[in-house]
Amino acid sequence: MIGKILKSSSGSCANRIKYVYGGKKHDHDIINIKTIDTNCLAFCPEVGIQKASMEDLHCMILDMDITTKLKLGEQGRPKRTLKPIFHAVLSLDAGESLNPAQWKIAVRHYLKLMGFINNTNKYMSVLHADTGNEHVHIVANRVSYEAGFPMVSDKNNFERNLQAISEIEDMFGLRKAPRPEETWNIAVSSREVEGAARARTIPYRSRLAAKVGACVESTGERNGDMINFVRALRRQHVYVHLRYDTEGQPKGIAYEFEGRVTSGKTLKKARFTFQKLTTQEGIKYDSSMLPQLQAELSKRNPASEGKPKPTEQRYWVNRGWIYMYFIPVNIAREPFIRLKVKKTGAQVRQEIAHQEAMALIEAILQILAALFGVAARYTAKPGNPRVKGYIEYDKDEAFPLLVSDETRPIQKKLQLA
Hints:
- Helices cover 36% and strands 18% of the residues.
- The chain contains 15 helices and 13 strands.
- The protein has helices spanning 14-20, 45-50, 55-75, 100-113, 157-172, 180-183, 190-198, 204-221, 226-235, 264-268, 274-279, 290-297, 345-349, 354-372, 408-411; strands spanning 2-9, 33-38, 85-91, 123-128, 135-141, 239-244, 250-257, 260-263, 316-318, 321-328, 337-342, 378-382, 391-393.
- Helix 4 runs antiparallel to helix 5 and helix 9 (226-235) packs parallel to helix 12 (290-297).
- The chain is elongated.
- Mean pLDDT is 76; it is low at 196-200, 304-314 and 397-417.
């Protein structure tokens, strides 16, 4: 089981409750939504929702919001914004299930360990059973009906969540979720949690963080340097990309794993950035290491050097465009380039042949060498259609980077079959 606590919110619980009952940007069919447990007056609003009546749902929202209004009325205008709405998701592994009575026990045990009291804190829990993995949404009001309307503390929520999940797993014999030492405490979204559960795996960022974290620790224990760190990561099939300052020295780091590149700041800015690695984690680096470090960065494991199968999809395709990044070895000398190349509709409907994409990339690399000199070294990576700033190239038009007659022969290599 995986337990995910979403960010607390201020004001009314209306948006959260409407969301979990399928009425607000949710992709679940209402017939597969079932109230597991609640101490609100409206027990099963989904029955009314199926009959196009929202009365019970609105009644539940009013009941959940009463203590928040009473606390605000007693305090007047609080010094800081109250965030009384607690929202958590308990998700089972694919193939596992609990019956409603078991879910009710699990929900009450979870809320108890998170500090909620059944008689004084309003809550509701809803089962979504129409996906590959059963999961329950829990929405509760942290404001209590006790004198003074105290709030349930949100301190140590991470540790309490882990303890509650572990005890529920033991209670019902569920498969154990990855522990912090396996994931390095990387926060993942609920979408990542649900997607990983359907695929019966750990979320991608958690797996990558575990590999990077293990290499950080092993390198630090051996009093190693950045070259040792890169080698250790390569043995785990994680490859390092550096970003350079105007003087050609590293100032940023990114990690490539399973064809995706994630910056150290995005992965875990408190531990995995280049600055934190060299100042906080004890991984040595000085400017004299740069040539040897760059040589290590260019190496790949032999198992990953073979050409993929022709049917492998390596590049983003979206509405007739192939998206690619072209990353220079030294950003101080050559620019980072985003490129999207137009394909015909008929071609997009078919899976892009690997050899065709490789031929296109080879031609573009030659163009970049012609523009910036043979010393310019670029690496082609899959792009992302959601990122702005791409240079567009349509095969019926001149290539946007080149305008001189000297480079016209190279453009011919960009014509797609």
